[in-house]
Amino acid sequence: MINYYKFDVMWMDQKIASVDLRPKGGGEPYVINYITSFNKQFSPTMEGPVSKEELQKWVKWRVFPETRANAEELLQSLGLTSYNRWAILQKTHGVMADDEIWVRFAGETLIHRDVCLRKHLYYPV
User: With contact defined as beta carbons under 8 Å apart, do 116 and 21 qualify?
Assistant: First the structure.
């Protein structure tokens, strides 16, 4: 079963951060970064709570903007009827065309090859 409250932030097949939106005992979402000095690090601190604002900012960075010209067509292709960043993140795994960072939710067994947009570059036949 997929748990959308916990996810790993991946770069290719390397886990670069773990995020728990509902940590045991309550409190703010919690992040553990596994890398340093990387411009796409999840948060500025290596480990600890992350504010909901910071979390929303990160999710906004990983999904297409609501104002995108073909946003309605993209929503339809994802099976969504309205713009919801979290739903888009769940459907797209945060995959973008300009980097190889993506999200793997707890319970998933996906690897980079499964979500990569440029398979011809990374996994030629």
Answer: no
Reduce the DSSP state of residue 11 to 3 states and report it.
strand
Closest CA to 4 of 118, 82, 105: 105
DSSP 8-state assignment for residue 35: -
Q: Amino acid identity, residue 20? A: D
pLDDT confidence of residue 98: 87
Q: What is the pTM of this model?
A: 0.91
Report the interhelical angle of 52-62 vs 85-92 (nearest 10°). Answer: 50
CA distance 114 to 84: 23
Torsion of CA 99, 69, 83, 43, to 10 degrees: 30
